[in-house]
Amino acid sequence: MHPQPCLETLCVRHRQLQNLSAHNDRLNRTRHALWHRADALRLDEVVRLPDWLRPEQVYKCRVTYGPDVQLVEFEEYHVRRVQSLKLLAADGLDYTYKYADRRALNALFAQRGPADDVLLVRDGLLTDTSYANVALYDGSRWHTPARPLLAGTMRARLLTEEILHPTDIRPDDLPNYKGLKLLNAMLDWGQTPMLDIGQILSTGH
Length: 205
Known about the structure:
The chain is of the alpha+beta class and 205 residues long.
């Protein structure tokens, strides 16, 4: 059986593709692992920005690929407001690669109840929300779950810059932290608001 298609979701800001190195690395690691392709693709050579993209608007560039790029799509991006998270078990979920098929994640998201999103727990450890990695602040340093569902490109960049520190974090550890940030390719780390830890505990039990 052939592996299902995967995605890269890139941020286009000021008509520039952002964080290209991390996206290229993940795309080519995935192509090698799933399709045994040794050649390297460069997204800046594959993706052509259409003329209608406005410099003042942020866009999401969605690249669907298998052994080769299959489809490139663009849409305007607007930040989704998240003010509360529900802790939810996701044991057995495998999202090592960024598959185009998100049905398992969408089914978990549908269980969020009154919360804005879910914070998934696998094998007793915090992982990700339905669409973002997370970082937790202890008052001096930012920590990110050491074993996320998906190793995101923004997470990779912030780890390289030593802004984030990989840590095994259990739900019972949450009171040791002051706040949480969401991070993915589309969210500007410097502009992303910090969520109060109480907004996780109050909706997570």
